[in-house]
Specification:
By secondary structure, this protein is mainly beta. Helices cover about 0% and strands about 40% of the residues. The protein is built from no helices and 15 strands. A 3-stranded antiparallel β-sheet has the order 1-2-3, with no helix packed on it.
Length: about 200
């Protein structure tokens, strides 16, 4: 799904109706250097786990022609998206960036040690999301795929079916089902995965 607004740990970005982008908040790492971006149809902001992090992050934009722009921290290659093309969706994690191609395949750039970028075999995707150190995707058939850090069980999605969209927090994952219910897994310290009673959750 394409997002017109995105929130990082300490910065926010928004896409205007004319395809330009604005930002606010912490910009010390260049994550707000979006003034020259044009023809943008979706934005994403680095999803940072707060523990032990200074808030330095990155910002990603998807252009109408399917190319991608990025700015901000690039210590692990999370902004190395210049060669990406024919994309339909983007997501930004802590040290990685993920893209969903129009043909349903996934691409990723950035920190590889956690496994969050191990998405090259994924096919038939309709949505992707990035947590701090994990990536999730949902296929046309409603199956959910996950790769990366599973310290909190945020990648325990093998049994999920009928999912139409996914979302990733720092250490938890949500799946929106076609029947309006929501599945959750991962860190539940603050009850963020307690969605079993939710009903009629639908795309806008």
């Amino acid at each position: 799904m394409r997002s017109a607004v995105a929130a990082g740990r300490r910065h926010s970005v928004g896409r205007r109706a004319d395809g330009t982008v604005v930002g606010a908040g912490h910009g010390g790492a260049g994550e707000l250097a979006v003034a020259g971006w044009t023809d943008v149809v979706a934005v994403a902001a680095g999803n940072v786990h707060a523990a032990g992090n200074t808030g330095r992050s990155h910002t990603v934009g998807l252009r109408a022609d399917g190319t991608v722009v990025a700015t901000g921290v690039n210590g692990r290659g999370q902004c190395d998206v210049e060669g990406w093309s024919a994309l339909a969706g983007i997501a930004a994690g802590y040290l990685h960036t993920v893209g969903r191609r129009r043909d349903g395949r996934a691409v990723a750039s950035g920190e590889a040690r956690t496994g969050a970028c191990a998405v090259e075999e994924w096919r038939d995707l309709v949505d992707v999301a990035a947590g701090s150190r994990h990536t999730v995707g949902v296929t046309e058939g409603g199956r959910v795929l996950a790769s990366g850090d599973n310290s909190w069980g945020q990648c325990d999605v093998d049994g999920w079916r009928g999912v139409v969209a996914v979302a990733a927090g720092a250490t938890h994952t949500l799946g929106m089902c076609g029947d309006g219910t929501v599945l959750g897994t991962g860190d539940n310290t603050h009850h963020q995965c307690e969605t079993t009673d939710w009903r009629d959750i639908r795309p806008g």
